[in-house]
Amino acid sequence: MIITNIEVIPDKTIVKHLGMVQGNTVRAKHVGRDFLAGLKNIVGGELTSYTELLSEAREEAVARMRKQAEMIGANAVVNVRFSTSSVTAGAAELFAYGTAVVVD
Amino acid sequence: MFELLIFFCLLVVGYLYGGLVERRHFASIRERESQYQNLLTFSTRHVPPFDSPVTVALVVGSTVVSIDFFKRTAAGLRMLVGGRVSAYESLLERARREAILRMKEEAVRVGATQIFNVKLETASITKGAGRQVGCVEVFAYGTGIIVSR
């Protein structure tokens, strides 16, 4: 499965469009992480636990999108976009979407 | 009175330690940026034709950076009079450059030599959660081109 955020795949031709595929996940931070982040807020700097949490969540969203694309028989997803939104305080939604295509 | 003392302690700790952390971070960013100078990064979507066959891979990089207590207080005071909030400018600059660097690190790991269609996304992840403002996430992504020889 080829995943890319450009419209075409170099050296390959798109033979069939299968429509949009998407994957999302909503994650919340746990209390321990929140407490440590609170301490880190005093001195500043990178909040490693949040970085990990969000990149794990994004991988999950991409995996779901990939699964959906596989289910409809695609072998590539082009024009992938990401979006983040905070649903409530303390929880974020990570969303990935793209166009499923068949290439040869 | 006691609360005021704690407040000033936090201000001093934030000023000294936060400043140190920021200077170190910028030094490390500059060093790694010169290391990855040869990896070309483009924000255009159009990929020019290559001589040899290529494969593509999505490369991503992200970071969550928080502002220190001193700068947050200074920015709070600045909000009263308006104008340039330089405390947040440096926070966002740090986060963006770090996210781009992590994306480049991943590109090197998968063997890409160029990155096309780089997009940057900024999100304030602790928005609305009490007084915890000033914590941003920057996410950078693009398509890495792997030239097979």
Salient structural properties:
heterodimer; A: 104 residues; alpha+beta; Translation Initiation Factor IF3; 4-stranded mixed β-sheet; 2 helices; elongated; B: 149 residues
Structure overview:
The complex is a heterodimer of chains A (104) and B (149). With 104 residues, chain A is an alpha+beta fold. Chain A has one domain (2-103): Hypothetical protein apc22750. Chain B (Translation Initiation Factor IF3), CATH 3.30.110. Chain A is 36% helix and 43% strand. Chain A has 2 helices and 5 strands; from the N terminus they run E-E-H-E-H-E-E. Chain A has helices at 31-43, 48-71; strands at residues 2-3, 14-28, 45-46, 76-88, 91-103. Chain A has a 4-stranded mixed β-sheet with strand order 1-4-5-2. The longest helix of chain A is centred in the middle third of the chain and has 24 residues, at 48-71. Chain A is elongated, with a radius of gyration of 17 Å. The mean pLDDT of chain A is 87. Chain B has a single domain (2-147), classed as 2-Layer Sandwich (Translation Initiation Factor IF3). Chain B has a 4-stranded mixed β-sheet with strand order 1-3-4-2. In chain B, helix 1 packs across helix 2 and helix 1 runs parallel beside helix 3. The model of chain B has no long low-confidence stretch (mean pLDDT 87). At the A-B interface, strand 1, helix 1, strand 3, helix 2 and strand 4 of A face helix 1, strand 2, helix 2, strand 3 and strand 4 of B. Strand 3 of chain A pairs antiparallel with strand 2 (54-66) of chain B, so a sheet runs across the interface.
